[in-house]
Amino acid sequence: MIGPQPTDAGLVIEKHAKKLGVKTITYSQDWELSSSPSNIYLRFKKLHSVLPIPSLQGEHQLTNAATAAIATKLLKKPEINDNVIGAGIRSTFWAGRLQKLTTASTKSFPKGWSLWIDGGHNPGAAEALATTVSQWQQKPLHIVFGYINSRDPKEFLRPLANYIKTLNAITIPGEASSMSAKECKLAAQQLGITASVSSDFMEAMDKIIKVSSKPGRILICGSLYLVGAVLRHEQTMVN
Fold first, then answer.
1. 126: exposed, middle or buried (C-beta count within 10 Å: 0-12, 13-18, 19+)?
2. Which long-range contacts (CB under 8 A, 24 or more apart) does 45-49 make?
3. pTM here?
4. Which secondary structure element, helix H or strand E, spans residue 153, and what is its range?
5. What is the pLDDT of residues 110-135, one digit of tens each?
6. How many angstroms separate the CA atoms of 206 and 141, rounded?
7. For the domain that residue 145 is a member of, what is the CATH number?
């Protein structure tokens, strides 16, 4: 199964598949998708399916869902029909993948604020994230950002830079390989992002809300380790 690819990447995949003697099912040749606010419209050869929009957030999840749907059709099991596929698409949950939190920390948020987390940590993930946040411009986007010291944070932040109102840099709690908050802040500033340092994500969220003139979205991102720390903290507050 080959999804939408840049031309060069698609050629490499096709060449390698041919070398291995593997049959390919290629986007735009064998299958296509389009969408509306409520449905995915999928064509696979002569078959046409109408499937629900995924429960997972992000434009790229449309392609992911469509690819999975075609893979199930290749199994040729009649019990896996479009109703079953649709139920799976609607119920899929992936913790930390552009997940909206309604946990303990958000209970004290003023009206109109929301909290999101995303564990993407490389430029490809940032590009996908940027596609979604580009549609969030009706409210300011405030980032709480932590990163691992083996990567360049500017490569992650660059696709997002134009959509960020403010960035609060933190050191990932309990993670020896975390980049320092000061280094994250400097990387953001080099991209023209308004950035400051906070001691942890709780202080960062409090600061964002206190200094903002209107409600916005808070997105904690940059590292799976950071997302894990947030989820563990929220679970501790529940218990």
1. buried
2. 47/73, 49/82, 49/85
3. 0.76
4. helix 153-157
5. 999 999 999 999 998 999 899 889 98
6. 15
7. 3.90.190.20
